[in-house]
Request: fold
Amino acid sequence: MSNWFKEAIIYHILVDRFAGYREERNPHKPVFLGGNLKGIAGKIPYLVNLGINTIWLSPVYKTTAYHGYHITDFYSTDKRFGSEKDLKNVIDLCHQNNIRVLLDFVPNHCSNKHPFFQEAVHDKKSKYRNWFYFNNFNNNYLCFLHFHELPKLNLDFKEARDHITGAARHWLQMGADGFRLDHAIGPSHSFWKTFRNEVRLVNPEAVLIGEAWLEGINFNMLKTIRIRNKYWRWLFSFKPWDIEREYIGEMDGVLDFYFRHRITEYIAWKNDPAHYTHQLEASIRQHYQRFPGDYLLPSFIENHDMNRFLYDAGQHREKLKDALKFQFSLPQPPILYYGTETGLTHNQPVHWDVPFSDLHARQPMPWESMDMELVVFCKELIQNRKKRQSEISQFH
Reply:
């Protein structure tokens, strides 16, 4: 990996909900609103003005779901998001404006509507049977955690592994600058080593950032994940930084869930966060000391799977500003989830066990009613961060 990602300021986009969507569709239902790649292309001037230098796009591959994570073809875009030409146009426009593009990549599982799975589940002699983990007595199969509509791919079977690594190469050759790797704890370490090597052959500067967390995972789900000593570690309770350290040497870093929990605990949930500043700083400093300097921990205060920070902070705008200020002061790359900069929030919580409650955190970008004071605040944070980085690089 080159050093470019160390200076990344990342903007995380849920494609269906960001731009180009249709106003008349109900955003509180798990349906395609119509957000698309052409819409994103039209908002690149906005992103340039905001000051970010990297975007992370939710999965754009052929899918059965608006969020893109239920994939039916790893090698083509979903026409509802746009064509491959549209994706190439977004990547090219971003590059012309010095913005890198990370694609969300989902190697662990696919939709049960994927034609390879459909053939395998209906024909025990199918050549795709070994691409999945079937129990031949009852035709049950391993899936992503407990989601039966998402069968788990057997990435230690060569043909399946080659298919998935080939898809990654395909998108890199189009110009993608790297991947955010969904559910990194699902595939084996053997797979990740192969994957990294294949990616580096196409683009030595491509970045691999894993999603490595265990929240909401119970004992019965352990059979679907491939981390080291998982049953032993389960007995003695997992440490979040242990899971984040698991991929040193295989990825360039992982999303920092530990940071997100601490900033929620010390800012969102406290009546007077200023009294806890030293504790928060000490906690994060100690956390960073657990990792080698070249292993990156992109920070985020919210994402598409959890409460918006403003909800956790009781809709307290100053707390949101405090959290962003702290996040942007850290040495790790900050991630801004779309809408954070305009105070997107909700009134009902996101719950793991409540179907589709994650829609609360996935509302459309409110282009017609932007909170410009907050947008300017975020823009200044970004400018100040770039200025500090520039001064540090000149000093060295």
User: Anything to note?
Assistant: The first strand starts at residue 10 and ends at 13. The chain has 14 helices and eleven strands.
